[in-house]
Amino acid sequence: MKIRDRVLIVEDEQSISSFIAAVLEANGYDALTARTGSEAVSAITSHCPDVILLDLGLPDMDGMGILKFVREWSTCPIVVVSAREHERDKVEALDAGADDYIVKPFGTSELLARIRTAIRHTRTPLPNSDIAQSGQFRAKGLVIDYDKHQVLVDGENARLTQNEYKLVSLLGKHAGRVLTYDFIIRQLWGPGAKSDNQILRVNMANIRRKIEKNPAQPEYIFTEIGVGYRMVDPD
Length: 235
Ligand code: CA
Hints:
Elements: E1 6-10, H1 14-26, E2 30-34, H2 37-47, E3 51-54, H3 63-71, E4 78-82, H4 87-95, E5 100-103, H5 108-123, E6 136-139, E7 142-145, E8 150-153, E9 156-157, H6 162-173, E10 178-180, H7 181-189, H8 197-211, E11 221-224, E12 228-231
Calcium ion (CA) binds next to loops.
């Protein structure tokens, strides 16, 4: 029998918490719930969940505090589920170590997809741009060939520059997750790199011209406005 992944739902609103728990149980997960920050902390330390769904607005503490607390000692995937839809909230949560961010209200298929992505990333070796990744990433007509350092679209070499390739391969390694501008800049150009979103935007515009049929309506790399970029899930 397959071992069910355990998801901790940190949410103070009973109706939302029960709804998510029912969706998860129906889709093969074990759901645990916590209604306050202190319940969450004790559940995390005693049950070692496979994924944490974290509401930011909790009665006794801010979810950001829990996020930072957990990140001091654990790499357990954390998906923030919050009504806060401002870009700065998303950026702050992702930069503090959240793996993903979902704005309420959300669809169940979106929630399940984000959970699958978060778990997949803990089961694969940690992506590290220092270690050359081998193999291929495939999504629809897009192929990233990590061995040949090439990106193909419908079988044709997209002829990316070195920087463009690095950006696409980084997004491919984290496919399904939104990567913040700062994270991307640090990964591509080192921890001391100046945060300059303009260079990223120029690179992304060039990449889209090369890989997307309609750069204004991308099907491979999505912009999370004010936050960062997300590569489509692989096939
Ligand atoms: Ca709340």
